[in-house]
């Protein structure tokens, strides 16, 4: 890795706020102080949004990372040239947009596996558009796991003191309950512990949420807490982890927000996402828009680094110039931190040899 890590950033769905927040993030000189960023997607899409919004940047298309300038004011784009701007409509689901978004993700994974970029950051995608393009994945996490051949992985959400990883993510609630198993919970505890270390966190105390109300209340409201979650927590103790659980979720997250826990294991998607977004997402009712959208999604367990904004495509405001780049800036910051930590770990292992 060079002095500054090279970070590949995907455009997300071209009909979404993805291209807008990517360019806005690169208008911040601090990004170039910490890394060498390169966008991955259609250069024409970035040129169009920059002109529409009057953003003071020059778009520099390249076909290989080595041709990038990495200069503030000039946005390098690894150009896939796969969007027909005459057919693109902001806020609309389409196979063309989904195909372009998917191609950007697949390409940045390939660049990372080849060592051309040191970390990857993803913009928001629309799952229906991607599926209409013939790519049948539930989301970014599953795409990354597939193309890196990763079997054990987890979605870690990070926003200041709130750090949440999930036992299951993009499945139905009925399926999620069936996936609450001891082995998977242990696997996720391990991923979270390693993730906290990679992020440089000192507080490694982990709280594990119960599945049922009151964590089952000794079997009165379900048996999963006693039969699957508690044995996993007990085994984690034996392995040396500082872990509590199962803790009723309505109590667990209020304590997590104060910094009591370094990280939380949620049993399913909404159990973790709702309290997390209450912390990082700030809606301005008077202006009818978000004042800030903070939160980073990190996929743990991959052989490459992947962080992402933890918000959707926001089709309703696409192309209007009001989208906040806060989450993109935080995702880039986290990617840089993880890239530098990975270099330290590699050097440490080399020194031992």
Automatic annotation (TrEMBL):
User: Which keywords describe this protein according to UniProt?
Assistant: Metal-binding, NAD, Oxidoreductase
Please verify whether the record's keywords include NAD.
yes
Q: Where are its TM segments located?
A: none
Give the species this sequence originates from.
Arsenicibacter rosenii
Q: Which domain of life is it from?
A: Bacteria
What name does this protein carry?
4-hydroxythreonine-4-phosphate dehydrogenase PdxA
Which InterPro entries does the record match to this protein? Answer: PdxA_fam
Instruction: State a single Pfam family of this protein.
Output: PdxA
Q: Which GO terms describe its molecular function?
A: metal ion binding; NAD binding; oxidoreductase activity
